[in-house]
Structures are given as C-alpha cells and as structure tokens.
TrEMBL record:
Presence of keyword Mitochondrion: no
Enzyme type, top EC level: oxidoreductase
Gene Ontology MF terms: 1-deoxy-D-xylulose-5-phosphate reductoisomerase activity; isomerase activity; manganese ion binding; NADPH binding
Function: Catalyzes the NADPH-dependent rearrangement and reduction of 1-deoxy-D-xylulose-5-phosphate (DXP) to 2-C-methyl-D-erythritol 4-phosphate (MEP).
Binding site for 1-deoxy-D-xylulose 5-phosphate: 128, 154-155, 188, 211, 224, 229-230, 233
Name of this protein: 1-deoxy-D-xylulose 5-phosphate reductoisomerase
SUPFAM superfamilies per the UniProt record, alphabetical: 1-deoxy-D-xylulose-5-phosphate reductoisomerase, C-terminal domain, Glyceraldehyde-3-phosphate dehydrogenase-like, C-terminal domain, NAD(P)-binding Rossmann-fold domains
Annotated gene: ispC
Length: 410
C-alpha cells in the first residue's frame, strides 16, 4: 500500500494536532509532506523534529525567521521554511502531496483550501468557513477538478457515515429521491444551555471557553457558546449534502454522544455515535473507505449518560436563527455573516464588547449586504472585506457608546 502524502493546513491547532495523533499511529500509511500555521513557533518546531516535513509555512514572516533559527540550532537544514499567505496556497496545491487537511480557522482558510480543490486532491474539510463564504462556487470547483471532498466536522462526518454508500457523493447527493426525509444536525447547546437568558450579556470569555464536552480553540469555543458554530454547520450541510434549509433540523443533544442523524422516509433514523473526540472523524476521512484505529476509546454503553434531546430556543441562540435565515437568503448573507462574526468574536475575546453584542453586529451586517451580488471568488473576497470593514465600524460605534455611557455614570 502506498502512503498518503499529507499537507496539514493549521497543524498547530486542535484539529491539526489531532490529525498528527492519528498519523503517529499509522506510520506505514501516511507521510507528512508539509505543515502550516500562523505564528506557533514552538509547536511547529516540535512537529518538524518528529515528522520531518519537507516544507513548512508560518504565515508571519517574523515567526518563520524564528523557526528557521531554531531548526538551524539543531542542524536541521533539509526543511524549507516559508512565510506569507501565498505560501499557504503554494503548499496546498503542490504536487508533492495528494491529501490536504484544511483546518485553518476562519475565512483565511478559503483560498488555500480552494487551491487544494483546484489541484484535484483529497481534501479533508475542517474549515467550514470555506463553504459558508462561497458555497456554490466552492462546490463547482470540486466538481470541475474531480477533487475528493470529505467532511471532518464531527456532525457532517456523522451524516456522511449514515448515508447509503451510493449517496456518499459530496455535493451531488440526491437524498430526497433516495429515501431520506431529513438531516438531523445535533448540537450540545454549549455552556449556557441552562443559564438564565437575561444574564448572558455578562458572560466572560473564560466562561464561554468552558464547553461541557469538547476541547476546542478560542474562536470556535465562543461560536459554540452562541451556537453560531451550529449555524455555520447548518450552511455547510446544505452544500455538502445538496439539500435545502428546510431539509435540515437542529436538535439539541447535551451529551454529544450522537454526532448527527439521518431520518429516512420509512421511519428509520440512523445515528452515528462515539465519544466526543475529533480523532474519530479524522481517522475516518484519512483512511476512507477503510477503517483504522484512531486512538479513541470505544463507547462504553454501560457507563454512558442517558440521551437527552431538546428543541432549540432561538431566544437563547439568536445567532443560530440568524445563520439559518442567511442560509435561505443566499450567498451574500452567508458571506457577510461569517465576516462580521469573526470581527465580533475577536472583539468579545478582547473584552471590548458584551457577549450579546456579537449578535447585534452580525444581524446588522447581514441586513447591510444581504442583496449584494456574489457570482465568483473575487466577488466573495470583496464582499468579505466590505463586511469586515462595516463590522469594524459598528464595533467602533459600540465602543464609543459604551465610553459615553461610562462617562455619564461617573
């Protein structure tokens, strides 16, 4: 068996590190060709020592220089260190790899992920924003290049596993015509599922990080707390499985044991279950259609908590409702939503705005751009920039209003 040649975009993040955990278990199946991150010099250095890639990228030029110096200090000269955003695209499309793990968080992962798609590779999609910001354009590129797209998000990977094998054709599924009535997208509800709604404006970043089941990065943790993450997954599911918004239902499942379900017309519901660990979907996609060890313990049914299911309260999760509506409204609404959310979440993490202000910035931004025309990737990028600029303006207004309010209270 020939080894898969891997490029891991976002190798120092949680998905990247989990991917390398799986690779570590199967040195006979996988070879790491290239790694990429933004600024994580120390983690990248350790990954270079262990996996010996031929190329690495740190987008920050300053941090790339520091990494080169550390490698030189231990007499490693056969790893090429690159920097800059173009370098991400270059290693994603480079012919030396055949499989790309696309796990860069946010819209910054769009162009390198699209480059891997255009190169016709197996693309393991952990960057949901690529589909959120450019759904139809992205899927058209997959079809044109013959790339193999496999979902990494635990929910989408679960849905994929629950489909009939002849319908596991990402982007071209015909689910309704093949006995499937609905996709059931599960979500835990995050850390504030039972918290009084009128206290949410006082939520702190550290409280938002405290997800009850999953260990994730800062931005995704906040998105899970607002359930914007589930909203982005909702939009992603529409494109991955070629369905309408009306064919997807979000179900709260606090235990995160059932990762998602598919409802069939005959009354059957097929669910994919397992411990909440991203190594499971990563191993599935890395080895598909084979099954390999992931390092995740099997589910212990005798010590598993009872399963709970609840309807979504949109008063508690207005960002989820906003994302579902954006999915129905079209590409401009989705692109603007994602851009504004990245600005708003960053501001919350910097403690510049309240937790509940995230929704206000997102909603206003979607209304501003919902009617804008988006027909190609350049227009997507242009709209993304416009929406970010507009959200920054809204943020400045929030800060000014808050400053005036504090001054008036003195």
């Amino acid at each position: 068996m020939s080894k898969r040649q891997l490029c891991i975009l976002g190798s120092t993040g949680s998905i990247g590190c989990s991917t390398l955990d799986v690779v570590r278990l199967h040195p006979e199946r996988f070879q790491v060709i290239s790694l990429a991150a933004y600024t994580s010099v120390d983690v990248m250095f350790e990954q270079c020592i262990e996996f010996k890639p031929s190329q690495v990228v740190l987008v920050s030029c300053e941090h790339a220089v520091l990494l080169s110096q550390k490698l030189n200090e231990v007499n490693i000269s056969d790893i090429t260190v690159l920097s800059g955003e173009q370098a991400l695209i270059d290693i994603a499309e480079c012919k030396t790899s055949d499989t790309v793990m696309a796990s860069i968080v946010g819209a910054s992962g769009l162009l390198p992920t699209l480059a891997a798609v255009n190169a016709g590779k197996r693309v393991l999609l952990a960057n949901k924003e690529a589909l959120v910001t450019s759904g139809a354009i992205f899927m058209a590129a997959v079809k044109a290049s013959g790339a193999e797209l496999l979902p990494i998000d635990s929910e989408h990977n679960a849905i994929f596993q629950c489909l009939p094998s002849h319908q596991q054709e990402i982007g071209e599924c015909q689910l309704l015509a093949n006995g499937i009535s609905k996709i059931l997208l599960t979500g835990s509800g995050g850390p504030f599922r039972t918290r009084a709604i009128d206290t949410l404006e006082s939520v702190t970043p550290s409280q938002a990080f405290a997800h009850p089941n999953w260990d994730m990065g800062r931005k995704i943790s906040v998105d899970s707390a607002t359930m914007m993450n589930k909203g982005l997954e909702f939009i992603e599911a529409k494109w991955l499985f070629n369905v309408k918004a009306e064919d997807i239902q979000v179900v709260l499942h606090p235990q995160s044991t059932i990762h998602s379900m598919v409802q069939y017309k005959d009354g059957s519901v097929i669910a994919q279950m397992g411990n909440p660990d991203m190594r499971t979907p990563i191993a599935h996609a890395l080895s598909f259609p084979d099954r390999i060890e992931s390092g995740v313990a099997p589910l212990d049914f005798f010590n598993t908590k009872s399963f709970e299911f609840q309807a979504v309260d949109f008063k508690r999760y207005p960002n989820l409702e906003l994302a579902i509506e954006a999915c129905k409204q079209g590409q401009a609404a989705c692109t603007a939503l994602n851009a504004a959310n990245e600005i708003a979440v960053a501001a919350f993490l910097d403690e510049k705005i309240k937790f509940t202000d995230i929704y206000k910035i997102n909603e206003t931004s979607v209304k501003k751009f919902v009617s804008q025309k988006v027909d190609n990737i350049n227009e997507v990028i242009a709209l993304d920039k416009q929406a970010r600029s507009f959200a920054q303006t809204l943020l400045a207004d929030f800060l000014q209003t808050e400053a005036l309010s504090q001054k008036g209270n003195k």
